[in-house]
Amino acid sequence: HLLLSVLPRYIAMELKTEIVKRLSAKCSAEENRPNFHSLYVRQHKDVSILYADIVGFTHLSSTCTPEELVAVLNKLFGRFDDIAKKNGCLRIKILGDCYYCVSGLPDPISLHARNCVQMGLDMCTAI
Description:
By secondary structure, the chain is an alpha+beta fold. Helices cover 54% and strands 14% of the residues.
């Protein structure tokens, strides 16, 4: 579950398969050395990325305790994750008060741009 909390499912499954393969392979000592040079990179055409920054976050952070701020962001980003699923988007990163998601990954979606626009509109409504 740890991998799934930080990576998209398809990448986590590739990593899991590769780790199991390496652990079960009967290799020489040289081949058995940990090798972290594998890259799980693919080219994707026709995707859209949404980057959302919360306006007024700096002011909000100065008026709340750290605990209150984390609770507010956790609740808000949880809502954003639900909205992302509804709109065919995948969260790829949260950094401070910034939320990044993509549509068109891991499977192509012809309406990727519409999905991200609708995601943004729904995020505004959620706030």
